Amino acid sequence: MKKVRLNVFSLLEKVRSRKPVIHHLTNWVTIYDCANVVKVFGASPVMAHAPEEAAQMSAISSALVLNIGTLTKDLVTAMMIAAKSANQKGIPVILDACGAGATALRTDSCLDLINNRRIDIIKGNASEIACLAGEKVMTKGVDSSEVGSDLKKIASKLALKRKCTVVITGKEDIVNNGHKSYIIRNGHPMMDKIVGTGCMAASVIGTFAAVEKDLSFAAASGLVCFEIAAELAVKKALGPGTFKEKIYDCIYNLDEKTLNGMQKVYQ
Amino acid sequence: MKKVRLNVFSLLEKVRSRKPVIHHLTNWVTIYDCANVVKVFGASPVMAHAPEEAAQMSAISSALVLNIGTLTKDLVTAMMIAAKSANQKGIPVILDACGAGATALRTDSCLDLINNRRIDIIKGNASEIACLAGEKVMTKGVDSSEVGSDLKKIASKLALKRKCTVVITGKEDIVNNGHKSYIIRNGHPMMDKIVGTGCMAASVIGTFAAVEKDLSFAAASGLVCFEIAAELAVKKALGPGTFKEKIYDCIYNLDEKTLNGMQKVYQ
Amino acid sequence: MKKVRLNVFSLLEKVRSRKPVIHHLTNWVTIYDCANVVKVFGASPVMAHAPEEAAQMSAISSALVLNIGTLTKDLVTAMMIAAKSANQKGIPVILDACGAGATALRTDSCLDLINNRRIDIIKGNASEIACLAGEKVMTKGVDSSEVGSDLKKIASKLALKRKCTVVITGKEDIVNNGHKSYIIRNGHPMMDKIVGTGCMAASVIGTFAAVEKDLSFAAASGLVCFEIAAELAVKKALGPGTFKEKIYDCIYNLDEKTLNGMQKVYQ
């Protein structure tokens, strides 16, 4: 692997100037944080889960983020409607496979979405992605488990099979579209000490995917920005509570020099 | 227009001493912030959206706030029930027309509520209010768009037609009941950098409407308090994350001198 | 009453090392805070309210927390399913009777749960517990009312009748299993100035109940930790907004010396 330099600031500037609308059907735990992280990056979040309006909202959006964190059958139905509309319009669809593998409903709902709609980016932690790739894992609630197999290979295989970009978040993040791969070594263990950073990462990826057709580059850039902000926030925090608030400050104040100097991306 | 001095502290004191119960049927994105802003102002928020209890909760409340930010058909049905009970009791009903104009479901649900229940205060940004007033606008998700027409006239026309108070939030806020009008020039652009300030404003208006029969005065006073707190919070913040937390501190610590000295209300 | 010293740190260490999964079916207002407080204590929150997965999620959890703060009939059905699974597995079930007495739906749903499932810990404020114990009270929304009767007797009577542990939160917290009783005098009035501390307390109790079979000891220890953190947070806060964030920092940084030195537990 060699270190590469991504021009992530160019994408951040596009987000800030175009202010794309990012539609979400997401969970009730972190819905505020998903909306707020999109807003603080400079884009415009919208959350509309009624089946009667999900398609119309997708049609005025630039990306669609689906997160199954507190799914119900009705919500999955609305996700299907929203994703169909997104597919017709040609905007990227991001699936956060939150808790896949923990229950049959979660695994089956993810597979239904992947099998019946075009999902452009599948994002999860190691155990969630391994589950969707058909690898055997033990999942403990919505938190990640160790996965024995080679994560990069799992990501690549799933990406090729589903013709999509796969993102595995963890100590190292893997972004893989089957043909090229980024490894991101930014971020901080404090991100695992609070609820919501995983969901927020998916919303950030959606935000960057709204302004860049190369979805691997978009996903990697979004993660780099988010995780550098987290590194900066930790330095100003006394614990997970202040960390949570400082991360928004740090995202808002991200600049080119910081992003170029702090990024740790490998290929 | 001439500058006027509102005795907003007299209403704030009533809120703090009477601790009115403010019932909400609201969205899942900002539901915590709506509840918390009411609480920090000294009142008592309650959120009950089950059709089986919505009427009973309205009947023990002093104001009802309806917000369609993540509406479903079922939620609108519950809003109808809650509003009917509120109308029977004679407590003020505030409608935050969050995203009206963005989808048919949002626009139609607002109109259903306005046509079939007594809505005492209709609140929205320029594009939302213009939509409900029958003016042509382009809405971009739930964030405001520019409206070509004269906003004050739109507010006045809608207020007269619906026999209610209309609040248009923006750089300048307009409060108009068809007969008198307040313009509020408090607040700070940072309020638009985070999710939730619009919804919180509606909850604050509801809180003040619970203690004052002159609903224009109540709405203007609530906005003045909230936006002065925001101005104070910006000074203590390093970005949108710390701003969000400081705004609660500043609301909690509002005093008469500050409210008299900083208010910018015109008539 | 005499002051006693609980080894609460031993339980905190178990939470941190075992990282138990705490399943919630809770309300949409404070769902984030319930999840985050569990996480910051070192455990692993999960929220799954779909009837199709509620049982399966209980089966991989170490405690189940039910909170009726924004209940619907469907949610209560899912609670019944989740609690049945929890009962079969033998993990503790905690019921936060949020707003019991305010509406018939809330009171009846609590009683349905208590009558038909094994509820190990019933938690509420004075008016909520009095309502479930069959005492006459006036409830003002979800906030507590004064209760004329002797609270300790009510707690004991309800605990004996329902063969469970009863927790009444307030200026003094009462933990009573019918045979032994703890009074906790930690905490700070600032906890009542924000939304969510009551719900978070129930989640904390669930977290400690997941690692300790003596549920009164577990509940008392959880409250002591949470409330000492609140006392520490107040000292670092300028108001309810910063208090809210600092409480997470203070929970995360709790150590043995602090817990031993600051606890105020009586028997």
Question: How would you describe this structure to a colleague?
Answer:
Three copies of one chain form a homotrimer. By secondary structure, chain A is of the alpha/beta class. The first copy, chain A, has one domain (3-266): UDP-N-acetylmuramoyl-L-alanine:D-glutamate ligase, CATH 3.40.1190. Chain A contains eleven helices and ten strands. Chain A has helices at 8-18, 31-40, 51-59, 73-89, 104-116, 126-132, 151-162, 197-209, 215-236, 240-252, 256-262; strands spanning 3-4, 21-25, 44-47, 63-67, 93-96, 121-125, 165-169, 173-176, 181-184, 265-266. In chain A, a hairpin with a 4-residue loop joins strand 8 (173-176) and strand 9 (181-184). The longest helix of chain A is centred in the last third of the chain and has 22 residues, at 215-236. The radius of gyration of chain A is 17 Å and the shape is globular. The termini of chain A are close together. Chains in contact: A-B, A-C, B-C.
